[in-house]
Structure formats: structure tokens, C-alpha cells
Design brief:
Layout: E1 3-10, E2 15-22, E3 27-30, H1 37-45, E4 52-57, E5 60-64, E6 69-70, E7 78-81, H2 93-98, H3 111-117, H4 133-145, E8 151-155, H5 163-180, E9 184-188, H6 191-195, E10 200-205, E11 208-214, H7 215-221, E12 233-244, E13 247-252, E14 260-263, E15 270-275, E16 281-283, E17 294-306, E18 309-315, E19 319-325, H8 326-332, E20 339-344
Helix pairs in contact: 4-5
Length: 351
């Protein structure tokens, strides 16, 4: 998949000017409220026209103001999942899903496959008002998939949902990414939600792109500021092995030295866990006889000051961010190049 755009659109407080070339990967579009994320969503989906510019998907031009090309939403091959889900209240879940393929000539994705993937079989004869918010969201995603899209565009998929619903939805979105191989473009003002699905982030502020790349590199370069965005560390874990009740040890992608990560659960053979920078303690030496299950050796590659705290960027085989006080930095003598140990509890890891 390739998506490219170079577009302009006047907004109330700024002129939106965005340009990018995205490859075959899942990408998060992140920025504060009012940054221009919803405008970008509307322009890509064909719900709004730019004042100037061009949009192309897989080499096919779908918008070009100069040539007066404006493909309607149903001909863009972009599956769209709205923040509000927008199921038809008078149609069953099955009828809502099937509505997605009404205008599709080349049906590359089958109804039965989507229903199985998203575990919707028990709900097919139900009406939208009789199922949960998470189930409605899965139905909305299924409807978008039946358009046989070349890309799936999701607007704030976790907005206004509680932690339990978020945990329910994440595995399904990862299935889309990993099993159907459909690139996702996720629009969100919540950076941790994006990080749970991808580390590739397109940063928007006041209608302009201020950074694009892996979030750890954006933070390391000073492009992205940690703290108020609630950045998390992500660990891609594989080969879980149960070693006790409520305790598993796993390999982490990137760790080739035999180091294992211990977690309180393992929902699949491969899965992603997150941990907040505040949950990682640092020590210059390994700490014996302690209840903390995980101690990863690493090297500090950067220090970023934020008010009275510091964010340590650490290469521990996997990149990690730890938040410490300025006092801790002085007492431990932590600087760029310092070798240390990252300590965190198994129960600090979250899906």
C-alpha cells in the first residue's frame, strides 16, 4: 500500500498544509484536539475537498484539485470507521455488515471470513441497540472491511471507551493488521492507544506535520515532547512459557541475549504489552533478592529534561524510556553512555 498526499485547506484558526508518503504499514496520526486530524480524516475519506492539492492511493489519484478529480467515498477503496460507529439502527448486525459490499465489484474479502475474524457470529441477528459498544464497533469495522479496502481509516477508535473495552478491541485490530495485512491509518489524540498498534507516528500541530517516524526516535530527537501525551513503552513479546500461577516468561523481539520478560498473563503466542516510563526504576548495579521480576541491562543514549524530571532514553536491546527525578540522576551519576539496569514489576506491564 502506498498513500501520498499534498493538500491544503483553510481552517478557522490556521491553514492546514499536510504532505506525506506512507508505505505498506500501520501509521498513527497524532496531535492535540484542533490540530487538524479530523480534517485530514475527512479529506482522505472523500467527505471534504481540499482547496488545493492531490491525494493518491496505490498510485491511483483519488483527489486532484488542479484536474478536478474528486472520487466519491465509495470508490476510493478506503474503508472508513467513524468515531461514532454509525450503524443503521433499523438493520440487524448482519444487514449492517453486508451493507458494506453493496457497491463493491471486486470482492476480495468474504463475509464469513470477516465474521469469523471479528467473532461476530452470535450477534448477526441482533439489532444495534441490543449489543454493547465494543460489539457495535466490531460490526462497524466488519462493514468497512466488506468494501474490500486497500486501507482502513479509523477515527479515534478508542475515544470515550473504558479500559475494559479498549482491552477487548485491541486484539481485533491487531488481527486486521497481522492476518488480513490491511494497512491501518489510526487518527487519535491519545498517543498510548496509537503505540499499542504501531510505533510509526505522523505528528500534527496547527495543521502542519511536525514529525514523522518511530515515536522513540521522535522523542529522542526532541520532536515529540513526553509527559502530557502519556507516552508508553511497548514490548512485542513472543514464545510465552508458564512458570507459575499468574506468571509467564517470554522472549522480546529485539532481545537476542537470552533475556526474558516476565508478565502476569500471555493472551497469545505473540502479543504487545506496554509499560509507563514512571514504572521503570533504574539501578547502576543488578539488584538481588528483590520481588521485582524484570531487570534489563542497557545503556543511556539520551536524557531529555522536562520541568523537574528527566526522561532517560535507554538501549536495552529494545528501546525504553524511564522517567526519573533530577535528584536521582545526580545521585546515580546517570549520563549519556551510562550502563545501568531497568527494573520493572511483571504487574506493571499492561495490554
Amino acid at each position: 500500500m502506498s498513500l501520498s498526499f499534498d493538500i491544503e485547506l483553510p481552517r478557522r484558526n490556521f491553514l492546514l498544509q499536510l504532505k506525506a508518503d506512507f508505505g505498506d504499514q500501520t501509521i498513527g496520526v497524532f496531535g492535540p484536539s484542533g490540530a487538524g486530524k479530523t480534517s485530514l480524516f475527512s479529506l482522505l475519506a472523500g467527505l471534504e475537498r481540499p482547496s488545493a492539492g492531490k491525494i493518491a492511493l496505490n498510485g491511483k489519484v483519488i483527489t486532484d484539485t488542479e484536474k478536478q478529480i474528486y472520487l466519491p467515498p465509495n470508490k476510493r477503496k478506503i474503508g472508513v470507521v467513524f468515531q461514532e460507529k454509525l450503524l443503521f439502527p433499523h438493520l440487524s448486525i448482519k444487514e449492517n455488515i453486508l451493507f458494506g459490499e453493496r457497491y463493491v465489484k471486486e470482492k476480495r474479502i468474504r463475509f464469513d471470513d470477516v465474521v469469523e475474524l471479528l467473532e461476530l457470529s452470535p450477534l448477526l441477528n441482533s439489532m444495534p441497540n441490543s449489543v454493547s459498544g465494543g460489539e457495535q464497533q466490531r460490526a462497524a469495522i466488519a462493514r468497512a472491511l466488506l468494501t474490500s479496502p486497500e486501507m482502513l481509516l479509523l477515527d479515534e477508535p478508542f475515544n470515550a471507551v473504558d479500559a475494559n473495552l479498549r482491552k477487548t478491541m485491541l486484539p481485533y485490530l491487531r488481527k486486521l493488521r497481522d492476518e488480513l495485512k490491511i494497512p491501518l491509518l489510526i487518527i487519535s489524540h491519545d498517543l498510548p492507544d496509537i503505540q499499542r498498534l504501531t510505533n510509526m507516528v505522523y505528528l500534527i500541530e496547527q495543521g502542519r506535520c511536525v514529525g514523522f517516524g518511530e515515536i522513540i526516535n521522535l522523542i529522542n530527537s526532541g520532536t515529540a515532547v513526553t509527559g502530557e501525551q502519556g507516552v508508553v513503552n511497548t514490548l512485542n513479546l513472543i514464545k510465552p512459557e508458564k512458570i507459575d500461577e499468574g506468571l509467564f516468561q517470554c522472549r522480546a523481539e529485539g532481545l537476542n541475549n537470552g533475556t526474558v520478560i516476565r508478565t502476569p498473563f500471555a493472551p497469545a503466542d505473540s502479543f504487545t504489552m506496554t509499560i509507563h516510563p514512571e514504572e521503570i526504576a533504574l539501578s547502576i548495579t543488578p539488584v538481588p533478592n528483590i520481588s521485582i521480576q524484570n531487570q534489563l541491562k542497557g545503556t543511556v543514549v539520551n536524557l531529555i529534561k522536562k520541568e523537574h524530571s528527566l526522561y532517560c532514553i535507554i538501549n536495552a536491546g529494545v528501546p525504553l524510556i524511564a522517567k526519573i527525578t533530577a535528584d536521582s540522576q545526580k545521585r546515580l551519576g546517570i549520563g549519556v553512555g551510562t550502563e545501568l539496569y531497568c527494573l520493572f514489576k511483571a504487574h506493571s506491564l499492561m495490554l
